[in-house]
Write a structure and sequence with these properties.
Layout lengths: L6 H14 E7 L8 E6 H33 L5 H13 L1
Antiparallel strand pairs: 1-2
């Protein structure tokens, strides 16, 4: 976008990004090493929350798969109708 957008589009994009950033901290480092940079932002919180949700979703799917296979082995869902009912219940959750 940086190279291909017109200045008005770039400015709109930068304004949106600026709204997400709460604070930028530039720290001193010894010698001639590059300064440290920390960005505190809402977007970091959003990304962390999304990662947590993805982990929980994978755990949930794993538990459902385990539960489904257990019921299948036990003969509790031996008909297509019972299987559909169980899968529909999982989908609601």
């Amino acid at each position: 976008m940086h190279e291909h957008a017109d200045s008005e589009t770039k400015q709109l994009f930068f304004n949106i990004v600026h709204q997400f950033i709460q604070k930028v901290v530039i720290g001193k480092t010894p010698g001639h090493q590059p300064a440290s940079l920390e960005v505190h932002s809402r977007i970091a919180s959003i990304l962390a929350a999304m990662e947590a949700v993805a982990i929980m979703e994978r755990q949930f799917e794993s538990l459902n798969r385990h539960d489904y296979l257990g019921k299948l082995r036990a003969g509790e869902i031996d008909t297509e109708q019972k299987q559909k009912k169980l899968l529909d219940a999982y989908a609601e959750i």
